[in-house]
TrEMBL record, chains A, B:
The active site is at 269 (proton donor/acceptor). It catalyses: Release of a C-terminal amino acid with broad specificity, except for -Pro. This is Metal-dependent carboxypeptidase. SUPFAM superfamilies: Metalloproteases ('zincins'), catalytic domain (SSF55486). Broad specificity carboxypetidase that releases amino acids sequentially from the C-terminus, including neutral, aromatic, polar and basic residues. The lineage of its organism: Bacteria, Bacillati, Cyanobacteriota, Cyanophyceae, Synechococcales. Binds 1 zinc ion per subunit. It comes from the Bacteria. The keyword Protease applies. Its cofactor is Zn(2+). The keyword GTP-binding does not apply. It is an enzyme of class 3 (hydrolase).
Length: 513, 513
């Protein structure tokens, strides 16, 4: 069976992927190495590549190649149905993406790109100077343009839902409420419980930069990092990025007076990277096709959160790793010490540094507010008040200023609306997957109540990874996030696994003192 | 006066430059950060960019733009002759480049790009494993492809000369022999003289990596490095590269048991970078035009060698800087101590680590061998023998293996034939420029026999830089290397200034003990 049209389409996709990965390489360099003075030229380089990429992704040539491949596939499907199904799913995903790109007015695409760059610059300025009104007009502009984009895309969805699709395919607000509603009542209760039980878990020591980086290296070695295909860099905001089929990069950062920030960021980004490493993209051929990509940002976050919270922040991990911290000068005398320090349970204003119990509340607030901004008429001028009101209600803390309030995160400044829920959905997915993993490990012979912990304590994290590779990673975009969860756990995604886990952990933490 | 056609051509060049600088960014990343496993994908990225660049540089559109700009210029030249002359030189250089690119088959361009990436990877492997035969077929392939390239270019020059043009415009083997012949006889004599006089100048101590990098930082700060537009990285083979009008990068490396290697590499690469920083390219507009580029690699090397040898290895520099080495634990008690240690005068096998007296011999050997490989029928299989034979003859040392022999340098693995002579020409140019600089400094009031040293001793290296900026850097490609030397020094380039300098230094070093 020859696949002429499919092969031609594959070659086209491969060249697009090469260009896309060049764009990513420039992004990596910009965030890890580039001197500040080079920003303007780098902006032009990225702009040029974005223009070329958009042209390729919306071209008539691309359209024709997809059509021809689809016809060829219809003939082939009689012969090998399973292979054809996979290829068919690839074509389907390409068609969706092409139709999206084609519906967009290229003038709007450029306007959005410019508004993103301007928005980011103004946000940085506003945040530094704690001056929301500098940023507000740019935010207003981004909202208007993104609303226009949703209108042009003309999908049978609301504005916010349309914009959330690239992050969470098939997500609806109705479904989001089903999943988040139990959290809206239960999370504030848990935060209060944590507050009364252990308010003294603050950290009043620090580690040198050298020590923190040494601990990160040790962690990655323990977790089987292959230096041949990975590298760890430094950047102001940690991230993970794939630059080629054998090129997985991650970054971390050192935050003064936060001795676990660097370590946990490394664990988190490594989780993202492991997902990318496990995608069905291990040959050049697959790397270019949609099925070789991550299925959603929530699934991505479920993987990073798993390694950060279920592993690195577990009691078992602390028991097996605390000596390393102690050797670097951390004042911890036991696994219990490290475990309590790395799980502070003090609700704060900062999402990124939040503990597991309060983290979800940060997301609920952002999700509600961005839906309100995009489609329910919340005015940008009222955002700071609304933000502060909700923080007081749900977390009992009030930002001193907008820099630690509604200017805290980068997402909106780049016009990225619809991304925030992925973090919390990631927590839910991670919890439900962990339950399924526990069952699997019990079947493998781990007999305790906490088979994950048993595994971690004996240094067998590779068993957790193997399970994730086998059950989760390799599907790529064959299934969406919810289908994946149901396939792996046998149940529809829900919030109870996450809430059970939190209650348990809180119980253990507060009773361990 | 409107310059419509010139402006259109400028915009075209600017986009080419953006793409070229993206290519350079990938190269930087490949050599400083990229994990080894990513080499094959990176090769494809570079190949794709090379293809796109070649298409742009040989397109009919480009051809038309040049023609139109030329016509426009002929009308304009009546009005402002000086400006028109500069623009005319730009057009002339573009025409030369276009005609070269047009002659090349695009298939060959891609083949060469791929062979370079493969060659580099295989060379690294062969060097590590000391196994020349792993690399030999790749070298053979590179030679064949480059021979084919010279054939397609069809210039009134020999194969090697044709390939050397991009590095040394207008260079001929005849002229090269005129310049190098006096060195062929005199350098081995000087090496012998050095050998008998001071065989005890070996270094039997080392510095930690941390100390070495600290000394490099101190050096760059002393020499006025602006962190806003520069960055210092690490790579197996030190290099300097410009990635944008405000983005100057350089790398260094730490070599065990060679405590000055890292320091001198930094001084060397910083000299390259200073030249690039001083080119008439400080606005985006100029960055894209030929006149904003370095005129030849020999001139480039003259600048790096100047800062490495005439400054960092001078007695005056040692006198002013030795305390920093001492503070980092180096067993040097005085400027004289440091100066003698940093000028060991022990002929060795390694070009990069060679002292100034034997350095030229390394280049003579490589130049002869690559001319023989490219156009006189030397077979790649015979290269190790020929290499070793010449080292024995000219330097009296024999490599223990090919890793420290013919696998030592990266150049041939990337198909860069014709580059090596630039190093030695750079020594000649640096020496002749230094004489002119001395005269200028005397006129400024420095009265000693060694006005450069006087300047360095008082910490006024910026005066040397200012002279270079004013006399050398800003010409760009307005003149070629030989024209530049004649313009600045009033004499045709020759080897005597270099030989005089060497004899003098040797005298001082051997009498100082």
């Amino acid at each position: 069976m020859t696949n002429n049209a499919l092969n031609k389409l594959g070659r086209y996709l491969r060249e697009t992927q090469l260009l896309g990965s060049i764009h990513s390489t420039l992004y990596w360099d910009q965030n890890t190495t580039m001197p500040a003075g080079a920003a303007s030229w780098r902006g032009e380089q990225l702009g040029l590549l974005a223009k070329v990429l958009h042209a390729r992704q919306s071209s008539d040539e691309f359209d024709d190649l997809i059509k021809e491949a689809k016809e060829e596939l219809q003939i082939q499907s009689v012969i090998d149905q399973k292979d054809a199904l996979q290829k068919g799913r690839n074509i389907e995903l390409l068609e969706i993406e092409l139709s999206r790109q084609k519906k967009l007015d290229s003038k709007l695409v450029v306007e959005i790109a410019t508004a993103q760059t301007d928005g980011y610059a103004l946000w940085q300025e506003a945040k530094t100077k704690n001056d929301y009104k500098r940023f507000a007009p740019a935010l207003k502009k981004l909202i208007t343009l993104r609303q226009e984009q949703a209108k042009q895309l003309d999908e049978p969805r609301s504005c916010w839902e349309t914009l959330a699709q690239p992050y969470e395919p098939d997500l609806t607000i109705k479904r989001l409420n089903e999943l988040f509603d139990p959290l809206r009542t239960r999370l504030p209760e848990l935060v209060n419980k944590a507050k009364t039980a252990s308010s003294k878990n603050t950290i009043n020591w620090d580690l040198t930069e050298r020590s923190q980086l040494k601990l990160c290296e040790r962690l990655l070695n323990k977790w089987g990092r292959d230096k041949h295909i990975t590298c760890l860099g430094r950047s102001p905001h940690p991230f993970s990025i794939t630059l080629g089929p054998q090129d997985f990069r991650l970054t971390t950062r050192v935050v003064p007076e936060q001795p676990f920030s660097c370590f946990l960021a490394t664990a988190h980004e490594w989780g993202h990277s492991l997902y990318e490493q496990g995608l069905p993209s291990q040959s050049h051929q697959w790397f270019a096709w949609p099925l070789g990509q991550a299925t959603s940002m929530a699934v991505h976050e479920s993987q990073s959160l798993f390694w950060e919270n279920r592993v690195a922040r577990s009691r078992a991990f602390s028991d097996s790793f605390w000596v390393n911290f102690s050797n670097e000068g951390a004042p911890v005398q036991s696994g219990l010490d490290l475990w309590r320090s790395i799980n502070p349970l003090v609700p704060g204003l900062n999402r990124v540094e939040a503990d597991e119990v309060s983290y979800g509340i940060h997301i609920l607030i952002r999700t509600d507010l961005e839906i309100a901004l995009l489609q329910d008429g919340l005015e940008v001028w009222d955002l700071p008040n609304e933000w502060n009101k909700r923080y007081k209600e749900l977390l009992g803390v009030i930002p001193k200023n907008d820099s630690e309030g509604c200017l805290q995160d980068v997402h909106w400044s780049e016009g990225a609306f619809g991304y925030f829920p992925s973090y919390l959905l990631g927590h839910l997915i991670s919890a439900q997957l962990s339950e399924a993993m526990s069952i699997a490990l019990k079947e493998e012979g781990y007999r305790s109540d906490d088979p994950l912990g048993e595994c971690i304590l004996e240094g067998s994290e590779h068993k957790l990874l193997n399970w994730l590779r086998k059950e989760v990673h390799h599907h790529g975009r064959q299934v969406n996030a919810e289908q994946l969860v149901e396939k792996v756990t046998g149940r529809r995604l829900a919030s109870n696994a996450f809430l059970n886990y939190l209650e348990n952990k809180l119980e253990m933490l507060t009773s361990s003192s």
